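Quick one from the shared queue. A colleague (R.T.) flagged Putative PIG3 family NAD(P)H quinone oxidoreductase as missing a structural entry in our internal table.

Convert sequence to structure tokens.
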Amino acid sequence: MSLPETMRAVEISQPGGPEVLRPCTLPVPVPGHGQILIRVAYAGVNRPDALQRAGAYAPPPGASPLPGLEAAGEVAAIGPGVTRWAVGDRVCALLPGGGYADYAVTPADHALPIPEGLDLREAACLPETCFTVWSNVVLRGGLKAGERFLVHGGSSGIGTTAIQMARALGARVFATAGSAEKCAACEVLGAERAINYRTEDFVAVLKAEGGADVILDMVGGSYIPRNVKALATEGRLVQIAFLEGTKAELNFAEVMMRRLTITGSTLRPQADLAKARYARDLETHVWPMVAFGALRPVIDSEFPLTEAAAAHARLESSGHIGKIVLAL
């Protein structure tokens, strides 16, 4: 396909609130060795985008300074060494950055075919959450069929994906959320019990069930010692974010006596090879869940690219259920 020299994009003019996101015009990037150029149809909006905008999450070396960690669209060009994809292929992909633009580059091995039964808008909602949930809940947390799984923030993009994926894997799923509406949404997606953290104690609920075998947490702060109390013997706590803070006081004797594991990760700084392995895992194990209808992206709202600031405001209001997307 014929490529223009310039493209629309949204840049971070300076660290700050949503208002610092500014439409701009930039040169279309050129894919390097092992990379593809995607003509973006939709881009996902995620918490790391907001952290980057605020100056708290710098892109890795060599990545685009533009926000945007996932997108779906058509392959517009391929770099040297790319054999799987051809111009015109429809893909969704994990991006190192740059999704808030008409065109974005990413390693070819981080792209996936559009799952059967999904359109580009839905597919744009999958990469960041599926890579994150699979690598943390399944690979780091070791969740198995029959185990009890608790996800905090069950109505978020990560949460809605984690509920469905864990349920498809045969786990018993529990979730926390901050309203009756959000709790109901979690249960519709497959949580057998959604806990309103404003009115209920998730520790008591999980201990009554025998404790959680795996907990996925993005809150941190005061939740860390409470998570430890909510774990079953030999349970695993997987930390992926710290909305409430990175520090907590913890009695490690409890960790030792009950043989608990505390782990966690961030996705963006990991090596390209690690992300390529996750992509292969998703295509083998998770994409069939999507095709069978066991996992479907939950979309809260859609904004045009020029209203990226409004999309960030919606994200940070915590009023959303599921994913927020930008349409290009």
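The chain is about 30% helix and 30% strand.
The chain has a mean pLDDT of 97.
Added to the table.
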